[in-house]
């Protein structure tokens, strides 16, 4: 009798070939994420910088195997072996280089903040749409399994009810060198300052909590802190919805490290204290209270809040790249279309950010949120 045939293993998909456009520090984190992915997902085909020497040094220091180096951004975009571009350049450079990448048919993973204003972002998104390429911004925590678990709880009407209030706080205590020299405090490079850098996370977390329903209006808090060049170092705002929901946020380069989000529903509450960068990259926790009441005579709580802890084999930045690559492979290999939810979410974040800036410019008067 003949022995049974060995099972035929499905061939791995062709990995998405990435080009990294710029050698910013954040690009090292994404490069590490690319190296952590399983076979058949993604690979770094090339790195481009303003000098080939800098690109070669980046490749050597990050351990990228066999990545080609380019001494200009234009050269990388002309590389036929690059299918997708990760773009971590300063925000002021996003429009020309993101549009150039899209025009050459490169799928676009764009570092946040994605643009200085919604009009600039619209130009980028229009270029991606015209070329049929996938767009995604790099809000990494969205891809963490913890985020999906929190969404599941918020969506449970019995456990959580309806979201009524959200508060988000993102900050870190920047060094004197950062406050003098970092691109995030330079008006010609990243003019949005703290609002674009970590205020972006605050706004995204609020929108995520309300299932991306845009507020009607925003009022910025008075007396934001700016540097001598007029770039924001600390600010905050309150968001208002027609049904009475409210949200507040604060972001700062001047206070201790915090990535806190609290979401208050009619039946429940969620607290997470390390949303943007978890305390440990392969686990994440958050606390949930539901249908809380007092132990009479007002001496305690019943039931007590519960701690949820989740685990992941890959850190959130690797999961982000994995999901982006899956979408690109679907377009490339299965004649799929770009996933539209990602540019939609990005644009909603951007228009709220614009409204905060508008309220500051109007002397802290209410600013309507454009649809």
TrEMBL record:
Classification via Pfam families: GFO_IDH_MocA (PF01408), GFO_IDH_MocA_C3 (PF22725)
Top-rank taxon: Eukaryota
InterPro entries: Gfo/Idh/MocA-like_OxRdtase_N, GFO_IDH_MocA-like_dom, NAD(P)-bd_dom_sf
Domain GFO/IDH/MocA-like oxidoreductase as annotated: residue spans: 149-270
GO molecular function: nucleotide binding
Every Gfo/Idh/MocA-like oxidoreductase N-terminal domain range: 16-136
UniProt similarity note: Belongs to the Gfo/Idh/MocA family.
PANTHER family, sorted: OXIDOREDUCTASE, PTHR46368
Entry protein name: Oxidoreductase
Species name: Digitaria exilis
């Amino acid at each position: 009798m003949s022995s049974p045939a060995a099972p035929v293993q499905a061939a791995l998909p062709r990995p998405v070939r990435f080009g990294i456009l710029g050698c910013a520090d954040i690009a090292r984190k994404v490069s590490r994420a690319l190296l952590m992915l399983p076979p058949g997902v993604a690979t770094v085909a090339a790195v481009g910088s303003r000098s080939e020497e800098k690109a070669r040094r980046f490749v050597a220091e990050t351990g990228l195997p066999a990545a080609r180096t380019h001494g200009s951004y234009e050269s990388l975009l002309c590389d036929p072996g690059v299918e997708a571009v990760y773009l971590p350049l300063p925000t002021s450079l996003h429009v020309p280089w993101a549009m150039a990448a899209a025009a050459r048919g490169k799928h676009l993973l764009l570092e946040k903040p994605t643009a200085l204003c919604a009009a600039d972002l619209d130009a980028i998104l229009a270029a991606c749409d015209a070329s049929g390429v996938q767009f995604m911004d790099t809000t990494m925590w969205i891809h963490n399994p913890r985020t999906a678990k929190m969404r599941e709880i918020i969506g449970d009407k019995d456990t959580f009810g309806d979201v009524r209030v959200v508060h988000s706080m993102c900050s870190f205590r920047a060094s004197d060198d950062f406050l003098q020299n970092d691109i995030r405090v330079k008006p010609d490079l990243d003019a949005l300052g703290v609002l674009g850098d970590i205020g972006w996370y605050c706004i995204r977390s609020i929108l995520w909590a309300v299932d991306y329903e845009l507020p009607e209006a925003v009022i910025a808090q008075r007396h934001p802190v700016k540097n001598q060049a007029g770039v924001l170092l600390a600010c905050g705002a309150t968001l208002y919805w027609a049904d009475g929901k409210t949200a507040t946020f604060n972001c700062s380069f001047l206070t201790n490290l915090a990535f806190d989000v609290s979401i208050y529903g009619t039946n429940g509450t969620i607290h997470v204290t390390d949303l943007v960068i978890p305390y440990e990259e392969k686990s994440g926790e958050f606390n949930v209270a539901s249908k809380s009441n007092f132990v009479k005579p007002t001496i305690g709580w019943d039931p007590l809040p519960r701690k949820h802890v989740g685990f992941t084999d890959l850190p959130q930045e690797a999961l982000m790249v994995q999901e982006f690559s899956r979408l690109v492979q679907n377009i490339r290999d299965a004649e799929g279309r770009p996933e539209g939810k990602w540019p939609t979410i990005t644009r909603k974040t951007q228009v709220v950010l614009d409204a905060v800036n508008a309220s500051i410019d109007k002397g802290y008067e209410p600013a309507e949120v454009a649809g």
